[in-house]
């Protein structure tokens, strides 16, 4: 007797979602060579996908610390940030390399007065006007962290380390008040781990288990931030069946990811930005 | 006659050795990519996770997911790789990137670098400058010799907050090529038509003229054009 499940049309009644599962299983089988038996055995139990960005950010609370991935535009979870802006949580501490652009995305959140403090390395380019305005009025606080130290502090939190010694910032005002130590004859500054309540990330492809891949410069802070927050949410451009991402190509294993939201990015909507250059 | 910004970039490009892994800052340093011949195997690193950065993308062929640290749309060369920020700064801090060329506000005779903020009420930003200055062995500065008010930028001691102490190895300007040595600043080359005495006058620290100090070998096109500062 065949172990293959009946085709949907052979069943008396079936809802659309079951039909889609059959299609997915078919595709997985074709793309990975997995047997239908091994796919069926576990069943579709884990599903980290959510229907919308607003569902995904619903639990962000007032005073939360929120990491946001991305550098420039690649890897910035623009839809999740917009959803957070609609959601209303305030008094936020945001960890991001920059301070957003003009008045949308993170800059919009800052403009709306929702960010109490920004932890960043490079918040001082011309289009970071929303942050500049509030910072100079004393309305938003800044913790300035050298970029390599910023990512390593996040990495330390994700890796369960109590901090690290670095030569970066030795002998500068950004080392003021921090422990310094001579190691093997050279001075180092101690830096502490940086953890967040939420991480908002962007990836290219994902499966329902939360496995993520990135394209080119989308990666930047995203895979590291994925390890360092209590709740990790990724907006992704394409949701693919389990098994469609090979083990070799997964950059962020699903173990780190709590929620996935598929967004639609129409490549025809891409408008290169030339008005902006960093200082 | 002083060099143009492109002239400075051209001169730096000639000194980068084959097989170098190079981080380029924004401004004059990034112009260096224009003067690396396609057959040279030099790998340009961008701190946002790219090794093997190619030329800026042609209009209409930009990839939204491919920008450099200056947020310009770029291309990749054969043999390039992409990676996350932790690995990118492992390359910088761990001393794997062999050369860096960055801009400066001030450089001191002992190699102290100030390039991230000037005193005053403004938003500070440091980016990767402190990691680069602390981690990369051959740290070269490419800048104009004096400020737009004509004040020296090479000084006995920096007045602006430091990026890192004692890190600069060599300074390329529109007037000169100067090495930072244990014994102080040494003038190695002058721009075509610039006298060593003129360089010394525009420098705010003692400057020793090397015995073999010579005129820079740069094409005439890079001479005599007013610098855009």
Multimerization state? heterodimer
Name of the top-level CATH class of chain B: Alpha Beta
Radius of gyration of chain A: 22 Å
Overall average pLDDT of chain A: 87
Would you tell me the overall average pLDDT of chain B?
Answer: 94
Q: In percent terms, what proportion of residues of chain B is strand?
A: 25-35%
Protein model, in words:
The complex is a heterodimer of chains A (279) and B (229). In chain A, 24% of the residues lie in helices and 22% in strands. Chain A is of the alpha/beta class and 279 residues long. Chain A has a domain at 49-160 and 194-264: Glutaconate Coenzyme A-transferase (3-Layer(aba) Sandwich). In chain A, the strands form two sheets. In chain A, strands 1, 2, 3, 4, 5, 9, 10, 11 and 12 form a nine-stranded mixed beta sheet that branches. In chain A, strands 6-8-7 form a three-stranded antiparallel beta sheet. In chain A, strand 3, helix 5 (106-111) and strand 4 (115-120) form a beta-alpha-beta unit. The longest helix of chain A is centred in the first third of the chain and has 17 residues, at 16-32. Chain A is globular. Mean pLDDT of chain A is 87; it is low at 1-16, 28-40 and 275-279. Chain B is α/β, with parallel strands linked by helices and 229 residues long. Chain B has one domain (5-222): Glutaconate Coenzyme A-transferase. Chain B is 16% helix and 29% strand. Chain B is built from five helices and 13 strands. Chain B has helices spanning 5-15, 28-31, 85-93, 129-135, 196-201, and strands at residues 21-24, 43-46, 50-56, 74-82, 99-102, 106-108, 113-114, 138-142, 154-155, 168-172, 176-181, 184-190, 207-215. In chain B, strand 12, helix 5 and strand 13 (207-215) form a beta-alpha-beta unit. The longest helix of chain B has 11 residues, at 5-15. Mean pLDDT of chain B is 94; it is low at 225-229. Chains A and B meet through helix 6, helix 7 and helix 8 of A and helix 3 and helix 4 of B.
């Amino acid at each position: 007797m065949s172990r293959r499940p009946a085709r949907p049309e052979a069943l008396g009644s079936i809802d659309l979602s079951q039909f889609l599962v059959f299609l997915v299983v078919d595709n997985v089988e074709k793309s990975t060579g997995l047997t239908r038996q091994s796919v069926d055995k576990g069943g579709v139990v884990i599903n980290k996908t959510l229907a919308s960005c607003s569902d995904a950010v619903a639990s962000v609370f007032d005073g939360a610390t929120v990491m946001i991935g991305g550098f420039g535009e690649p890897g910035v979870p623009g839809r999740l940030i917009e959803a957070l802006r609609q959601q209303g949580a305030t008094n936020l501490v945001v960890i991001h390399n920059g301070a957003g652009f003009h008045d949308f995305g993170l800059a919009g959140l800052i403009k709306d007065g929702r960010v109490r403090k920004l932890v960043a390395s490079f918040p001082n380019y011309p289009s970071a006007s929303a942050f500049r305005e509030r910072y100079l009025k004393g309305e938003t606080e800044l913790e300035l962290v050298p970029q390599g130290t910023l990512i390593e502090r996040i990495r330390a939190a994700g890796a369960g380390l109590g901090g690290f010694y670095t030569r970066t910032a030795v002998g500068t005002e950004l080392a003021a008040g921090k422990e310094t130590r001579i190691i093997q004859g050279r001075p180092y500054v101690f830096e502490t781990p940086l953890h967040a309540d939420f991480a908002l990330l962007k990836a290219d492809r994902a499966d329902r288990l939360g496995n993520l891949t990135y394209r080119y410069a989308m990666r930047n802070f995203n895979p590291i931030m994925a390890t360092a927050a209590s709740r990790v949410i990724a907006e992704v451009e394409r949701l693919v069946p389990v098994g469609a991402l090979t083990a070799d190509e997964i950059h962020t294993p699903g173990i780190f990811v709590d929620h996935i939201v598929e967004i639609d990015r129409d490549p025809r909507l891409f408008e290169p930005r030339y008005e902006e250059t960093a200082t | 006659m002083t060099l143009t910004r492109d002239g400075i970039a051209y001169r730096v490009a000639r000194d980068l050795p084959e097989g170098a892994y190079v981080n380029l800052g924004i401004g004059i340093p990034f112009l260096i990519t224009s003067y690396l011949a396609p057959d040279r195997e030099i790998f340009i690193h961008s701190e946002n996770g790219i090794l093997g950065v190619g030329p800026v993308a042609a209009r209409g062929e930009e990839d939204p997911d491919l920008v450099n640290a200056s947020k310009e749309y770029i291309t990749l060369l054969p043999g390039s790789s992409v990676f996350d920020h932790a690995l990118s700064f492992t390359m910088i801090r761990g001393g794997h990137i062999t050369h860096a060329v960055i801009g400066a506000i001030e450089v001191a005779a002992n190699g102290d670098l100030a390039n991230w903020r000037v005193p005053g009420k403004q938003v500070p930003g440091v980016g990767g400058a402190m990691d680069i200055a602390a981690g990369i062995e051959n740290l070269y500065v490419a800048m104009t010799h004096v400020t737009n008010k004509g004040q020296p930028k090479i000084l006995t001691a920096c007045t602006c907050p430091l990026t890192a102490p004692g890190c600069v190895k060599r300074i390329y300007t529109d007037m000169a090529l100067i090495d930072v040595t244990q014994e102080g600043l040494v003038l190695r080359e002058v721009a075509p038509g610039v006298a060593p005495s003129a360089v010394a006058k525009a420098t705010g620290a003692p400057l020793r003229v090397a015995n073999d100090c010579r005129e820079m070998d740069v094409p005439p096109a890079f001479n005599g054009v007013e610098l855009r500062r």
